[in-house]
Amino acid sequence: xxILSLHPAATEIVFALGLGDELVGVTAYCDSPPEARQHPVVxxxxxxxxxxxxxxxxxxxxxxxALEAADPDLVILSDVNRVCRAGSREVREMVAAIDEEIGVLxxxxxxxxxxxxAIQTVGAMTEAEDDAMDVVADLRERLQRLEAxxxxxxxxxxxAPRLAALEWLDPPVSAGRWIPEQARLAxxxxxxxxxxxxxxxxxxxxxxxxxPQILVLMPAGMDLPTTVAEWAAMPRPKGWAxxxxxxxxxxxxxxxxxxxxRPGPRLLEGIEVLxxxxxxxxxxxxxxxxxxxxxx
Length: 296
Known about the structure:
By secondary structure, the chain is α/β, with parallel strands linked by helices. It has helices at residues 8-16, 64-70, 88-98, 112-125, 129-155, 179-185, 204-210, 224-233, 244-247, 256-259, 267-278, 280-283; strands at 3-5, 23-27, 41-44, 61-62, 74-77, 103-106, 162-169, 172-174, 189-190, 214-217, 251-254, 292-294. It is built from twelve helices and twelve strands.
């Protein structure tokens, strides 16, 4: 099968199912695994996007000629994130105009379970059901081991810390969808977001009101070095030094692009990142190298 991926998460799922050789096109932002970069690019963000202080809409421009040359049997996209996404209606209309026989699959989960189901859906559409079941079973097993440690730590007196995760910094935006769930499974209590819902624009005063013990910066679409650089260049908000997370030196930047903004297999690694941040005594060394760093 000839598969065209229009979202980094879809690309990661395709490779996880052992179908990398069947990819015939990707976006300019499909960078994991590294082999993804070897495929033709059929979509990228506009070179001169409209100025915005918020992430989005971030709609990709589809190269129709490249899409047609790729000659896909199946196009996979995701319309769930605000950044680096392909408009579902635009893609369906473009694909139908080329060949109505081309399948289009949109992966739009809003929870961790939905992300696991998305892996199985791709497996079903690509005749890789058994591989998808194996991938999901492995992810569930890893999660069960982590959850067992979290429960054990609580049984022995560890208190879930108050945590705030931000998907944008100026203005601050709460992290929604699966991210509060990731924090909960990792042993924390996320204060600002709502599971299954989009993040909300707020003020730094609202962050101060909840006074998190841990603050995690994960701007949408940014990797760790970019997040660190953006935070370093940003003036600290009023009352910053009064936050408990700041006083206790528990403000962290993470690789949000890799572990929190792609509804695919690496959401589990995002939980592991948060687990190490939340309870380093129990989870020291669990997360991937260069996945997070302490900032001030």
